[in-house]
Amino acid sequence: MGYDMETIEGRTKYLINQRKKDIKKFEAILRGECLEYSRYMKDETFLGSVRLKLKSEKELLLDLEGFSDVLSEKLVGSTTLMASNHSIVSAEGDSVIISVKGETSENIADEWDKVYQEENNKLKIFRSPMTIEEIKSIRDENNYVEGIVIVDLDDIIGYDLESFLDIISDKLIGSVCLMDTNYTVFGTEGESILIRVKGDASNAIEEDEEE
Questions:
Q1: pTM above 0.85, yes or no
Q2: DSSP letter string over 113-154?
């Protein structure tokens, strides 16, 4: 299907189509229909990330279609309502009654600030790799460990994905043995990036026990 990318209408239709494709893909992943992601279906970090992306795509689709702005305007008198949910309650003549729930941008910002602070207090920033004793003390029942590492910008843009995964593995556990690695940008510190890393440290633990 072709789109006239020279017009606002064409670009909007293209973006709406992309959002719909992404929504179908994320919904299929969560239903376990994508074989390439089958090994991650018990990983709550991965599933949580997909759910967040799905929610974001749905909100973007509503924004592109303009419907969420209409509801926001009718509820709070402006288009500032965010993360809104709606459901049809009943019909009234030629109109429908819709239940709308959402938050203003100020509340969203406060909530994210709170989440950031809670996560910052819970997760340790590792300025040097974990010792094997630390790995064993904080691992979960599946030998997964999690922490925040500091990465230079050059390490992000100057290497391919596999090399980057080796870098953050080495920074977290002192070797490239971390498996099933998940990472997200957590924040910044000067010109460096704080990366939240979670992965399976079974190989590092087994190597230590074999020595």
A1: no
A2: HHHHHHHHHHSPEESSPPPHHHHHHH--TTSEEEEEEEEEHH
**In this structure, are 40 and 96 located in the same domain?**
yes
Res 76 pLDDT > 60:
no
Let me know whether 197 and 151 are in one domain.
yes
Rounded CA separation 155/162 (Å): 12
Distance between CA atoms of 84 and 101, rounded to whole angstroms?
5
Q: Does residue 188 fall inside a structural domain? A: yes
Q: What is the distance in angstroms between the CA of the first residue and the CA of the last residue of the chain?
A: 60
Q: Provide the domain limits for residue 133.
A: 123-210
Among 146, 144, 130, 134, which Cα is nearest to 183's? Answer: 146
Q: What does the alpha-carbon distance between residue 44 and residue 50 come to, in Å, rounded to a whole number?
A: 10
Instruction: Kindly state whether residue 152 falls inside one of the protein's structural domains.
Output: yes
